[in-house]
Write a structure and sequence with these properties.
The chain has 14 helices and 15 strands. It is an alpha/beta fold and about 500 residues long.
């Protein structure tokens, strides 16, 4: 973790001094609401104002300290203010902040480091396209595939999240995003994502049904699909509920694309850069995509994204094929180079895979005692805990997941929902979280679900006593402080935004 005082997390988290939101947080939340659009969402789920952050912890302006299992929605795989990233940012800030597309040492070093980190045959055989956000990268990748094949038609999957701006909104599957960000362009072919827990097309038996359906779409002249240029896929479904597909899914998809001259685009925006215990999630299956979208952690919190594609994919792209003033910002690239180096050096990836397996086992153990947990799945530190009303019918229970989010927040742990009905809590802690803090978070999780099972759906306030259900929950939570009662979830079961 480094040897400087700021290199690790706050060691006494979770620490609740004032039931959140505390008085100072309330003041800042009110000021934000006065000036900023009411379209913001995260301040409703986690109503605090942040003072500082370290490692896998966040401190609010009232002195409360939280264990962060959100990590900026997988933006902060290396945690808040990793010392090596701070040093890289400070060094670059003394040189140049903005350079358009002109070469800088930061830019060239990043390009070399990224290409050496790519999966399979992309390594040392890729061209790089700089973009700004994850959605920007996905949209560029689709445009690139259409240009390379001279066809239109992108296969995407149910539950997919590929961004909400411009053409990317059509690639994202959620209706709520279409309602607020309509876009009439683009040709999108939607196919069910193979979910072994909620099987469609026989996905509990592998990928054969999905591939058979894709073959029907491309071979049957009356399928309604005129052409396909690419298949766009998340190696593990992100906003759709942290769904891990059957092991043969990506290899079968690669074979399908090769048979029909279709390009395979892997959206590694959320799954990439160590999140699953490998540098890239596609490495679990040994599949190399033709095009790959990279964002989130690559900038360590500074906006930057990348499209990597086979160097033989197109002979030449016209100048200005995709433009943007902020692409390839030198500050972000200096940080990004260090992100890649940290992940490639040492054993962080292997440790993430091992600790992720143990964490899944802990969640499953809790699920044995609490049948509202219907399924636990994931890879590395990308773990989904799905809540159901009945383990036999598997009816999704979004209200329970939301109540858990509120109960955890009251206990000083930040954890967010996903899934079509917001029925999945997703574990996406920074990879650098200390073992002790990971254990405290798991204790808080079990305490929260124990309280919910005892009281019904939403946890009642503890009225002057410390959380019950787990011995030695955490001494930093003062027993004199009552924990606030979360608001009861309400409204339609629609997926909440994450970017």
């Amino acid at each position: 973790m480094g040897d400087t005082p700021d290199s690790g997390s706050y060691p006494d988290a979770p620490r609740i001094l004032h039931p959140p939101p505390g008085p100072r947080s309330r003041e800042l939340l009110a000021q934000q609401a006065k000036y900023e659009t009411d379209a913001v969402s995260y301040s409703h789920y986690f109503p605090i104002a942040i003072e500082s952050a370290r490692g896998a912890t966040v401190e609010d302006v009232d002195g409360n300290r939280f264990i962060d299992w959100v990590a900026g929605i997988s933006v902060l795989n290396l945690g808040h203010r990793h010392p090596r990233l701070v040093a890289a940012l400070e060094a670059q800030s003394r040189k140049v902040w903005h350079a358009l597309e002109l070469p800088t040492e930061a830019r060239v070093e990043f390009l070399k480091e990224l290409e050496a980190s790519l999966p399979g045959s992309l390594r040392h055989h890729a061209r790089i396209f700089f973009t700004v956000t994850g959605g920007d990268a996905v949209e560029t990748a689709v445009q690139l595939a259409d240009h390379a094949t001279q066809r239109h038609g992108t296969v995407t999957f149910s539950g997919a999240y590929h961004g909400v701006h411009g053409g990317a909104i059509r690639l994202t599957s959620g209706r709520r995003y279409h309602q607020t960000s309509p876009f009439a362009g683009g040709v999108v072919v939607r196919v069910p994502y193979p979910d072994p827990y909620r099987p469609i097309l026989g996905s509990d038996q592998g990928a054969a049904g999905t591939i058979e359906y894709l073959e029907h779409l491309i071979n049957d002249p009356s399928s309604g699909v005129d052409s396909m240029s690419a298949v766009l896929v998340e190696p593990i479904l992100g906003e759709g509920g942290y769904v891990v597909p059957p092991d043969d899914f990506l290899p079968s998809l690669r074979e399908f694309c090769d048979r029909h001259g279709i390009l395979l685009i892997a959206d590694e925006v959320q799954t990439g850069l160590g999140r699953t215990g490998k540098m890239w999630a596609v490495e679990h299956s040994g599949v190399t995509p033709d095009i790959m979208c990279i964002a989130k952690t690559i900038g360590g919190g500074i906006p930057v994204s990348v499209v990597a594609y086979r160097d033989d994919l197109v002979k030449e792209l016209p100048r200005g094929f995709h433009i943007g003033t902020y692409r390839g910002n030198p500050l972000a690239l200096a940080v990004g180079t260090e992100v890649l180096k940290v992940l490639r050096e040492g054993d962080l990836l292997a440790r993430t895979l091992r600790r992720g397996q143990r964490t899944q086992e802990r969640f499953r153990d809790i699920g044995v005692r609490h049948p509202s947990i219907g399924n636990v799945r994931g890879k590395g530190f990308m773990i989904g805990v799905e809540f159901v009303q009945d383990p036999k019918t598997r009816a999704p229970w979004g209200d329970r997941a939301k109540a858990m989010r509120s109960a955890l927040f009251a206990r000083g742990v930040l954890m967010h929902t996903a899934g079509a009905w917001d029925q999945v809590l997703r574990f996406m802690s920074p990879l650098v979280i200390e073992d002790e803090l990971l254990e405290r978070g798991l204790q808080a999780f079990e305490d929260a679900i124990e309280t919910l099972d005892t009281s019904g759906n939403v946890p009642a306030a503890h009225h002057g006593k410390a959380p019950t259900g787990v011995t030695g929950f955490h001494p930093s939570v003062s027993p004199e402080l009552g924990l606030p009662t979360p608001a009861s979830p309400s409204g339609p079961h629609l997926t909440e935004p994450s970017e």
